[in-house]
């Protein structure tokens, strides 16, 4: 019951959120088993809108040596899936409508439609959002958070849940560093022991280290 007015709403809302997350965790555990049975290496890419997730995938997939497939999450449009297919790699677009993140059920449905070759790297580009996607396990093997130098140095401090969940943080748009007020050393300090790769998805510097990291997955 609500301590302020006795209406009961806050208590119900908290219970509902816990149930939604518990159900998602259960489905994500099934996804993880299913991915393992097909030797799929699933990478969940998350960031604010426009940090360069799709651009990084486009560059990656043009030279990636292994089999790959992509699930694209956006509220609307199939623009990102179209960009991925233009590289020759299969992609499925998931539109979440009013939703602000992908969940385990959406990914399971999409991967069944995509039917990737066993042993593939399966890239999941989450909906652009530094908050909600951090809460939803998809059954992935690794979480990559992309932050670009145009977003400001303070993002790891302001959105700690997202960065705490990252196996790797990619700092993108390195080519713009001379023109913006972004302190890469301070950003690394804020990120603590987390692995960080700085790169430019458009110009290509730093991308080899990213490819090497992916091949360890
Ligand atoms: N200068 C520069 N621009 C970049 C770089 N990477 C991406 N961009 C630009 O940033 C803009 C957004 O890139 P996207 O790859 O669409 O970003 P996204 O994270 O996929 O965006 P959403 O899917 O909408 O969340 C585009 O204009 C890209 O060309 C980079 O390394 N350097
Ligand atoms: Mg995108």
Automatic annotation (TrEMBL):
Keywords: GTP-binding, Hydrolase, Metal-binding, Nickel, Nucleotide-binding, Zinc. InterPro entries: CobW/HypB/UreG_nucleotide-bd, Hyd_mat_HypB, P-loop_NTPase. Residues 42-188 form the CobW/HypB/UreG nucleotide-binding domain. The keyword Zinc applies. Pfam families: cobW. PANTHER family: HYDROGENASE MATURATION FACTOR HYPB (PTHR30134:SF2), HYDROGENASE PROTEIN ASSEMBLY PROTEIN, NICKEL CHAPERONE (PTHR30134). Belongs to the SIMIBI class G3E GTPase family. HypB/HupM subfamily. This is Hydrogenase nickel incorporation protein HypB. The gene is hypB.
């Amino acid at each position: 019951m609500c301590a302020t007015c006795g209406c009961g709403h806050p208590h119900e809302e908290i219970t509902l959120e816990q149930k939604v997350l518990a159900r998602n965790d259960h489905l994500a555990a099934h996804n993880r088993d299913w991915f393992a049975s097909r030797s799929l290496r699933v990478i969940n890419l998350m960031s604010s809108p426009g940090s360069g997730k799709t651009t990084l995938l486009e560059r990656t997939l043009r030279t990636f040596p292994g089999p790959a497939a992509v699930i694209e999450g956006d509220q609307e449009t199939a623009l990102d899936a179209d960009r991925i297919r233009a590289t020759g790699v299969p992609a499925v677009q998931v539109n979440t409508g009013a939703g602000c993140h992908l969940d385990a059920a959406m990914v399971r449905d999409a991967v069944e439609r995509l039917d990737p070759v066993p042993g593939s790297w399966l890239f999941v580009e989450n909906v652009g959002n530094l908050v909600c996607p951090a809460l939803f396990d998809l059954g992935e093997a690794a979480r990559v958070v992309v932050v670009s130098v145009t977003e400001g140095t303070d993002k790891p401090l302001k959105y700690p849940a997202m960065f705490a969940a990252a196996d790797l943080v990619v700092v993108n748009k390195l080519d713009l560093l001379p023109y913006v007020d972004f302190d890469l050393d301070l950003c690394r300090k804020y990120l603590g022991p987390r692995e960080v790769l700085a790169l430019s998805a458009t110009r290509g510097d730093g991308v080899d280290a990213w490819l090497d990291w992916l091949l360890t997955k």
